[in-house]
Amino acid sequence: MKNKQEESDLWSEERRFWESGCTCICGADEAGAGPLAGPVYAAAVILPPGRLIPGLNDSKKLTARQREILFDQICAEAQAYAVASVDEQTIDGIDILNARIRAMDEAIRQLVPKPDFALIDGNRDHGSRCSIAIPHALLVKGDSRSANIAAASVLAKVSRDRYMERLSEKYPEYGFGQHKGYGTKQHYAALDRCGPCPAHRRSFLVKWEARRSECKKVDG
Fold first, then answer.
1. Is the whole model's pTM more than 0.70, yes or no?
2. CA dihedral 161, 158, 121, 19 (to 10 degrees)
3. Do the Cβ atoms of 176 and 38 come closer than 8 Å?
4. Which residues pair with 81 in a beta bridge?
5. pLDDT score, position 193
């Protein structure tokens, strides 16, 4: 968990843009770009300026329990927040980069009040089909540099994890509740046994399908 000085430093990027004239700044981040299954989620958050939420940090550096606690705190204290997702079929149709950007843009568009500037985690703000519409800045490792991005990272991660846990009830044979759709040994073993289900991103299974085809040829 961060100490008080580190938590205070999470506002340095917002202060920089407030000083340049921005008045209402949101942060946006996504979760679930890499898994073999499930949607990609994104969140956008506007925290009260300067508000320190104890323990707020990049969601990947937190335990599941810490994220759950922070999720409720962020929702209670934020001036505005929104969560959006892009499903597996759309990911296959437009690719994961466009899907990530679309999810973040949709989350930002849902915010009330409307921000006049966004801080976006990462180094990409557009794909071949989708882009971030609002004036914005890209921050590499922004979830460790911006309070609003850190808050968005927690909301996106927890929202997606909760979805995957519900999906595990529908497709218990894949273990989505444990690996959240990522390409673990357990997940690939389930794919080998059962094949893909509707929740899988078929564009992410090209190498697995090629390997399975080769195995069938050998067995045949």
1. yes
2. 170
3. yes
4. 45
5. 96
